[in-house]
Specification:
Pyridox_Oxase-rel (chains A, B), disordered N terminus, Pyridoxamine 5'-phosphate oxidase family protein (chains A, B), eight-stranded antiparallel β-sheet, homodimer, Pnp Oxidase, Chain A, Split_barrel_FMN-bd (chains A, B), alpha+beta
């Protein structure tokens, strides 16, 4: 994957951080199929990778009723962070986006059914719950030479 | 990157989660150059990508005194989570590891100098602080067919 960049073996260059606009951050988040939901569990910081889609400006994911995400996030309107990135360690280039917002279980059956069709779980198991995160704060950066 | 797997376009298969042992989780964490530190900021969940090395069973990273990580994590012994993964969205395979533990600023000048030589920051700026996370809980999973 990085054969063209790891040859030569010069000292790795340090990069600058360029802030991304909110619109560009959401565009990049929508361009990738998975990210990481960040929440609090037993008063400790917790994180789980999960696949998502962005629909009408909201991050949509699926969960099962027996999962940690269901217990800690979907069962009440938890404030969560959601992070996605594409980082190339060989070239030290890429981007990361962090969204902070309230995660809500989609209760309306028709809305839940519509969104379920758009998110295809990667893992086996009952994944009937649909969780929607409305972005309140959106930040992103890009590594630039 | 995924040209061999996206041809064919059959319906994507769902995977099972296989738990990784603590030793295997730490081995995988040490095999990758970056992860994401998860902490609390203004009572909200927060996350930042950062590059790391694993030294003597601890996760070691560098930070600058003006950064958010410095203010929220290094200035007191914060409990953090640290996540790293290698996930291939095309094949729906890969792994993720989450470590929870106390993050401490390495205060001893000789120890800090030794560790600074092992972690090379990706971004420009003063990155004199060395932060060490001692794993208390280690979990990991692998996506398997």
């Amino acid at each position: 994957m990085m054969s063209s960049t790891t040859s030569g073996r010069t000292a790795p260059q340090r990069r600058n951080l360029k802030e991304l606009s909110e619109a560009e951050s959401l565009r990049r988040l929508a361009s990738v199929p998975f990210g990481r939901i960040v929440f609090t569990r037993h008063a400790l910081p917790a994180i789980r990778p999960v696949n998502h889609v962005v629909v009408d400006g909201r991050i949509v994911l699926r969960s099962g009723s027996g999962t940690i995400i269901s217990a800690e996030v979907a069962s009440w309107d938890a404030v969560v962070a959601y992070e996605a990135d594409e980082l190339d360690a060989g070239r030290r280039l890429g981007w990361s986006v962090v969204v902070t917002g309230v995660a809500r279980l989609v209760a309306d059956p028709e809305e839940a059914a519509r969104l379920r069709e758009l998110v295809h779980p990667w893992v086996e198991g009952e994944m009937d719950q649909v969780i929607s995160i409305r972005p309140e704060f959106v930040t992103g950066f890009e590594l630039v030479p």
